[in-house]
Amino acid sequence: MTSNPLLLLFLLVAGVGAGLTGSVAGLASLVSYPALLAVGLPPVSANVTNTIAMLGSTIGAAAGSRPELSGQRDRLKVLCLVTAVGGACGAALLLLTPSDTFSYVVPFLIAGASVLLFLGPRLRKFAEGSSTHGLGPATGAAAFAVAIYGGYFGAAAGVLMLALLSTVWVQSLARSNAAKNIATGAANLIAATVFAFTGKVDWLAVVALCAGSIAGSWIGPAIVRRLPPAPLRIGIGLAALGLAATLAWQAFHS
Question: Can you give the pTM of this predicted structure?
Answer without folding.
Answer: 0.76
